Amino acid sequence: GPVSSLYGNASGGAILIHSEDAPKTPFISLRPSFGEDGFQKHQIKFGGRSGKLGALVNLSDLNYDGYRDHSKTEARQVNSKFSYDFNDDSDLIMVLNHTDSPTADDPGGLTEDQVNNDPTQARQRNVDFDGGESVEQTRIGFVYKNKIGTAGSLMLRNYYLWRDFENKLPFVGGGSVAFDRFFVGGGVQYTHTGQIGSFGNRFMIGFDLDQQDDDRERFDNNQGVLGAKTLDQNEKVVSIGVFLQDEIALTERLELTLGGRFDRIKFDVSDDFLADGDDSGKRTLKEFSPSLGIRFGLTDRTNLYANISTSFETPTTTEFANPTGGGFNPDLDPQTATNYEIGIKGLIGARSRYELALFQIDVDDELVAFEIPTQPGRDFFNNAGKSERKGFEMLLATEPVDGLKASLAYTYSDFTFEKFIDVNANDFGGKSIPGIPEHLVHADLSYAHSSGLFANFDVLYSDKVFTNNANSASSDSYVVSNLKLGYTRFFNNWEFSPFIGVNNLAGEHYNGNVRINAFGQRFFEPAPERNIYGGLTLRYDFGA
Predict the structure, then answer these.
(1) Closest residue by Cα to residue 112 from 527, 517, 478, 524
(2) Are 399 and 427 in contact (CB under 8 A)?
């Protein structure tokens, strides 16, 4: 659910990812991988610590012809993380990433008849117009943490991004897109952990400041050849957010969380292509998003909780695109939501844990994608009046014996439009929101033996999904499973670990993605059938 107090302008919550730290012992590893459909990926990773400095660098090169025609991908990446410990109370982390992907062909969506006839084919129009994209991006970020006294801590964030993007869409008028993006941002967060009277308390306060600057151009796409310019505009977005959150332990078992955030986002477009008129304009969007949570320790091993949280999500600059010309869509509003959730989390014995949650999200002005006949393959967006998302989530994870781990996750989703009349005056009130399966089940089983043998098996069941707002078409349910086997052996400082895997073990025919509301009922993107891959990890540690 929404976590707007700390993370701001988004409806979908947050995923917490902690990237790998440099190990104490320096090392270097190589990992070549090969598979069907021309899959090749080669990686080299090295790093270690020396005194107060830590470094970890990973380089990779990917080439993949693709399961479908016109789906070739090339990508080269550098991911690195550096850390410096000034003392026991302060440290600095720097992350540097670079991506160079000169080729990412788009085979396009297919109709149901085309999928049944040949799922590996590309949409001919995408081939004729050389549909696809290329991107080169560099990102650098800094996080500084410092303890203040015995109860306080300060965190400073600063990051920069440069992105050079080109895209060819399967139509003539404005079908070639290019933009140069510069993004800069940062934030400050102060946390105080202590007591208020006899109550334990943690208080957080801070602010975020971000700016995105895009120079965007569009040209005619003349069968894959760059044509006349049709759009030239500068898009600037400035975002300011101020937040606070307080967690107070009312008793040993009862904890209350209160939070709030105010966001102000200003969009400014300057039209430099005046042949079709001046589409310059500004939009300023702002919202206060409060939240309330309570947790009760039923036992030392079981927690009950309940949350009410709100969210505010503006359209992106791409979603703001005007279907009738340049500038920003004047009829598009931000999406807001209120989330209600109750749940229980706990431990079973020493080796198992579980989570259960019931939720309801009431959404106003949900952002919904659609296509228009003159620009097939390009998404525009409008607002649904009201929608409701109800569901149930469950997780069970266990390690019954050493080396054997299993997990089972299930999600039930009942997502519907309550009020929605689209730009063509179609009434979709009462229809299910497309693209969301009603039932989703994932199971995972992994085993590692002391001899070095290891195996992983996972299976995913997805219920059918509707592919348009009218619910007149759908993508079938499917069950897909994957298996990976390997062996790890150590020779002094060397690690030798070959592996082999099978994706889509049962050879299921299914759609890996659906294009919601695609024009011409081109909803379906078939996923690869059974395919085999393998590789080898070779690592050397420079130490005992």
Answers:
(1) 524
(2) no
Q: Across 65-198, where does the E strand assignment appear? A: 73-87, 90-105, 132-148, 152-168, 176-196
3-state secondary structure of 5: helix
Check the CA dihedral 160-166-169-171 and report its sign: positive
Longest dimension (CA), the chain: 72
Spatial separation of the C-alpha atoms in residues 186 and 161, rounded to whole Å: 12
Q: Is the dihedral of CA 321, 324, 330, 331 positive or negative?
A: negative
HSE toward the beta carbon, residue 281, CA cutoff 13 A: 16
CB proximity list for 362: less than 8 A, separation 6 or greater: 337, 338, 386, 387, 388, 389
Burial grade of 507 (CB within 10 A; 0-12, 13-18, 19 or more)? exposed
Element (H, E) at 126: helix 124-128
* Token digits of residue 209: 């400041």
Q: 57 Cβ partners below 8 Å, 6+ apart?
A: 45, 46, 47, 78, 79, 80
Q: How confident is the model at residue 166 (pLDDT cuts 50, 70, 90)?
A: very high
Q: Which two tokens stand for residue 35?
A: 């598979």
| Prediction pTM value | 0.90
Closest CA to 8 of 245, 215, 227, 270: 245
Separation between Cα atoms, residue 119 and residue 110, nearest integer Å: 8
- Res. 15 pLDDT band, cuts 50 70 90: confident
The tokens describing 506, both together, are: 């049962």
pLDDT digits (tens, 9 = 90+) for 446-459: 999 999 999 999 99
The per-residue pLDDT for range 247-287, each reduced to its tens digit, is 999 998 999 999 999 999 999 999 999 888 888 989 999 99
For 509, list phi and psi in degrees, rounded to 5.
-95, 115
What the block records as the tokens of 464 is: 């059918």
- How far is CA 366 from each of CA 104, 214, 329, 360, 437, rounded to the nearest angstrom? 30, 25, 15, 15, 18
Nearest to 209 by CA among 246, 164, 159, 161: 159
Burial 191-217, CB ≥16 within 10 A → b, else e: beeeeeeeeeebbbebebebebebebb
Determine the Cα–Cα distance for residues 237 and 315; give it in Å rounded to an integer. 11
